Amino acid sequence: MEYVLDLAPLIAIILGLLGLVFWWRWRTKRKEEREHSDALSTLAATLGGKVVGREEARAWTADLLPPMKSDTEGFTGWLGTVRRPRFETALDFRRDGWSVRVSEASMEQATSDSSNTFYEHRIEVATSPLPAMKMCRRLHEGFLGRPPTPTPAQAEAVGPAGEPPTTAVREQLDWLPVGLPEPANREFTVFSTDAAAVSRAFTPQVAEWLVAEAGPNPFQSPMPILLTFEAGFAYTTASQRIDPDHLLARVDIILGLLDRMGATPATPPVTT
Question: Whole-angstrom distance between the N-terminal and C-terminal Cα of the chain?
């Protein structure tokens, strides 16, 4: 007992330090959240749009693709999830006549020593009906400049574009590869439920524009790695928070592609 009493000051110091660490992490988190919210509000003001909170932030395509789906699938994903993904905020605005929603989701997952918050944001554009389609950037090099080594499943599916979206599965439609005019065919993999219609939309002029705008490095390009068209939406996701400094470049390249494909703006749904 006397030994424990002798250790009491040390225990008190350790507990105090732990409390200070947790307080500092909480304070830093609050500061980051405040700065992020202010940056989104500033961007919304410049665009004539608005920022909505958790009650209204659900993505238009949430029923087609749940947030952070790949991170929560299977037993491992379920086991490591401390808090299920949820949409936290969204930025709504109009750009050149198009209705755009950029939503941000987060989840808590267990790591080796604690739980961490992971983020995903989704860019959505409401568009006139188009054939279901996925367009994926071919990765000739990995992030560090090394050749990518796809798994057998990825090679068989020709990357994520080979996996049909929800609407194609639901309607039991054929999911067909689409050949683009060069040089786009070397840089992109495309699948669709209507290969002929998509081929007509991607004229040689559109293909040249696409490659020029995408640039040589997919990891530094505003062109999404994967862009999906279905159910009156064009959308893409990224495993990070909304970046106000680079968001519009990505939005504009999606809108530029829609314009050149002959699509027209549509009225977005009411999200609650």
Answer: 60
Convert the pLDDT of each residue in 199-250 to its tens digit.
Answer: 999 999 999 999 999 998 888 899 999 999 999 999 999 999 999 999 999 9
> Dihedral (C-alpha) 173, 123, 238, 108: value to the nearest 10 degrees?
-100
Gap between the Cα atoms of 87 and 62, Å rounded? 9
Residue 213 CA to residue 223 CA, distance in Å, equals 7
DSSP helix/strand/coil, 227:
strand
Do 233 and 100 contact (CB within 8 A), yes or no? no
| Phi, psi (degrees; rounded to nearest 5) at 20 | -65, -40
Residues 6+ apart with CB under 8 A from 51: 37, 40, 41, 44, 89, 90, 91, 92
DSSP element (H, E) containing 238: strand 233-238
Question: Global pTM?
Answer: 0.82
